[in-house]
C-alpha cells in the first residue's frame, strides 16, 4: 500500500509541476476542473443512464401534473407523493456510482491536502514542533531530544508537559529548502523533514506510526518507528487559503466548489442524467 501511495504522490507531483513555483491558485483550479470532468465520466460510466432518464421524465410529468391540478388538493398531494417516490428511486440508481466515486475523490483530496493545506516556512520564521507520547509514558525519563541540521535551528529548549504527555520545541529556519530535524531517545531515532519556501510540493505536517490509513492519507511521510514511545509528531506550518474578494477559502472549499460547478456545466454538454 505504501508503494501505491508513493506512486500516486509521484504522479500528482508530475501533474502539478507546471504550477510548482508560485502558481498554487492556478494549480488548484486546474486539478479541480480535471477532477470534475473525471468524476462526471465515472458517474456516467457506472450508472444506468436510461433508467435515470425515465425517472427524471416521470418527475417532470408529476410537477406538470401539480400545476394542472393545482386547485385539487388531493391530486396535488398524490403528485407530491409520486415525486418523492421517484426521487428515492433516482437516489437508489445513483448510489453505486457515488460509492465508486468516493475512493478516487478521497485519494485526490489526500494528495491535495499534502500540497495545499499548509505553506512552507519562510527564512527567519519560527514554528513549533509537538511530540505526543504514548499513554502512560513519562516525558522526562523517556529522554527524547531534538537536534537540528543545516538550514534550521532550535529556537527554544524543550517544554515537557506531563499532564498532556507532550514535549514542545520552537524551531527557526534559516534558508529555503528541505531541512532535517532528528528526534532521538534510548529507544531509537527518526529524521523529520522541515519545508521552507513557497514551492507547491508535499508538506508533511504530521507523523504517526505506519498503517494502511496513514500510507493513504500522508503517502511518503516518514513513519514514527515502532520502537519510539511516540504517538504522533506535529510541525505547525502556516495554513494556506485563497482570497476571493471579501473572504478567504481553504483549499478544500475551493476544490469542492470549482469541481462541482464544472461538473454541472459538463453534465449538460455530455448529456449526463
Question: How would you explain this protein's 3D organization?
Answer:
By secondary structure, this protein is of the alpha+beta class. The chain has 2 domains: 2-117 and 247-269, no CATH class; 126-235. The protein has 6 helices and 11 strands. It has helices at 2-15, 24-46, 49-68, 73-116, 212-217, 251-269, and strands at 126-133, 145-148, 152-154, 159-161, 166-173, 177-185, 188-196, 206-208, 230-235, 242-244, 247-249. Strands 1, 3, 4, 5, 8 and 9 form a 6-stranded antiparallel β-sheet that branches. Strands 2-6-7 form a 3-stranded antiparallel β-sheet, with no helix packed on it. Strands 10-11 form a two-stranded antiparallel ribbon. A hairpin with a 2-residue loop joins strand 6 (177-185) and strand 7. It is elongated. It starts with a helix and ends with a helix.
Mean pLDDT: 89
The dominant shape is: elongated
Q: Round the Cα radius of gyration to an integer and report it.
A: 25 Å
The total of helices stands at: 6
Unreliably modeled segments: none
Tell me the distance between the termini.
35 Å
Percent of sequence in beta strands: 15-25%
Got a strand count? 11
Global structural class: alpha+beta
Order of helices and strands: HHHHEEEEEEEEHEEEH
Tell me the count of domains.
Answer: 2
* Helix content bin: 40-55%
Largest sheet: 6 strands, antiparallel
Task: List the keywords.
273 residues; alpha+beta; six-stranded antiparallel beta sheet; three-stranded antiparallel beta sheet; 6 helices; 46% helix; elongated
Question: What is the fold's blueprint, element by element?
Answer:
Blueprint: H1 2-15, H2 24-46, H3 49-68, H4 73-116, E1 126-133, E2 145-148, E3 152-154, E4 159-161, E5 166-173, E6 177-185, E7 188-196, E8 206-208, H5 212-217, E9 230-235, E10 242-244, E11 247-249, H6 251-269
Antiparallel strand pairs: 1-5, 1-9, 2-6, 3-5, 4-5, 6-7, 8-9, 10-11
Amino acid at each position: 500500500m505504501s508503494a501505491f501511495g508513493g506512486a500516486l504522490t509521484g504522479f500528482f507531483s508530475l501533474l502539478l509541476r507546471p504550477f510548482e513555483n508560485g502558481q498554487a491558485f492556478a494549480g488548484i483550479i486546474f486539478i479541480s476542473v480535471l477532477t470534475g470532468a473525471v468524476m462526471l465520466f465515472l458517474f456516467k460510466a457506472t450508472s444506468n443512464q436510461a433508467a435515470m432518464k425515465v425517472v427524471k421524465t416521470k418527475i417532470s410529468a408529476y410537477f406538470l401534473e401539480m400545476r394542472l391540478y393545482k386547485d385539487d388538493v388531493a391530486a396535488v398531494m398524490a403528485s407530491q407523493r409520486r415525486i418523492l417516490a421517484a426521487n428515492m428511486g433516482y437516489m437508489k440508481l445513483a448510489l453505486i456510482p457515488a460509492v465508486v466515486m468516493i475512493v478516487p475523490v478521497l485519494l485526490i483530496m489526500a494528495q491535495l491536502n499534502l500540497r495545499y493545506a499548509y505553506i512552507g516556512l519562510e527564512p527567519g520564521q519560527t514554528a513549533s514542533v509537538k511530540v505526543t507520547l504514548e499513554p502512560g509514558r513519562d516525558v522526562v525519563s523517556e529522554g527524547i531530544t531534538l537536534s537540528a541540521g543545516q538550514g534550521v535551528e532550535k529556537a527554544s529548549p524543550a517544554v515537557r508537559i506531563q499532564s498532556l504527555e507532550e514535549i514542545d520545541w520552537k524551531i527557526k529556519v534559516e534558508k529555503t529548502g528541505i531541512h532535517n530535524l532528528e528526534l532521538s531517545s534510548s529507544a531509537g531515532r527518526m529524521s523529520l523533514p522541515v519545508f521552507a519556501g513557497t514551492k507547491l510540493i508535499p508538506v508533511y505536517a504530521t507523523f504517526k506510526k505506519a498503517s494502511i490509513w496513514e500510507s493513504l492519507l500522508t503517502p511518503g511521510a516518514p513513519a514514527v518507528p515502532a520502537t519510539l514511545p511516540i504517538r504522533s509528531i506535529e510541525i505547525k506550518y502556516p495554513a494556506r487559503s485563497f482570497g476571493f474578494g471579501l473572504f478567504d477559502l481553504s483549499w478544500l472549499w475551493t476544490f469542492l466548489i470549482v469541481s462541482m460547478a464544472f461538473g454541472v456545466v459538463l453534465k449538460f454538454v455530455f448529456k449526463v442524467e
